[in-house]
Amino acid sequence: MPLFEGTTGNYYQGADNTQNTADDTQYGNYQFTSLQVVIDQFMLAYVGEDKIISKIKRLDVVFHAQRALQELSFDTFKSTKAQEIVVPATLQMPLPHDYVNYVKLTYSDSSGVEHILHPARISSNPQKIAQDANGDYTLNSDEIQTSDSTTWDRYKGNDDLSSVDIDHIRDYDTSHYDANYGQRFGIDPQFAQTNGTFYIDELKGKIHFSSTLSGNPVILKYISDSLGTEDEMQVHKFAEEAMYKYIAHAVLATKANTPEYLVDRFKREARAAKRQAKLRLSNIKLEEITQVLRGKSKQIKH
Question: 84, 179, 224, 235: least buried by Cβ within 10 Å?
Fold first, then answer.
């Protein structure tokens, strides 16, 4: 387990001898352990004569350590990243290079408060196949010609709720968004918001936004696998034991002639260590929960 190296002066001043600058990337690093150190310590503590694993190639341990880092990043580590862009006129945003899945998308208002965007499950951007006047497919060098779909063109041309006439909403029910103002009983909560919508085109690797978000700052919070760069390959100290148990189980499970009871033992230990890491990393603070629950006894007037 790595200890703090250097002086506190070097920590706060950084390489440029100035506090709170862009070069101060060392802040908060003590809570993490690099993947390289985890591998070294696993080889030291678990591998050798009279130990659980008598002999294993370091390359095998590196493979299982990277797999452990990936798996724990998806649902255990605090590995959420964020990107902010201003939505262009095209209403599209490319997915980040290390994107695995999104956590949420929000837009930032003039006060800097984030408002969640909801996925538009009722639209998509399928490949539009070019057709001639008879409806036959148009070919180009024996390949079907495709383009952005009419569905996408109509979706980005829709003004959502910002330009919908309220009088029209009171009288008609021709759109999924007509009930958003609560004029009728049985409102669908997934449409009961005016923040805007999006959908992700996994095939083209782009996020499509509704037209009301054009020119607004949008924040994408997403999950990566912690293997994008060398600096990302680090483990929170709360989950360090989970890494060791995961690697040990993976090594024993793939090693020939390993007793089944030993594999099962480390499988259970790995599951328990992962559960303990989740609890620790959940960062539950009793005072914060108490503050939220203070509003529980308030009467809600109808």
Answer: 84
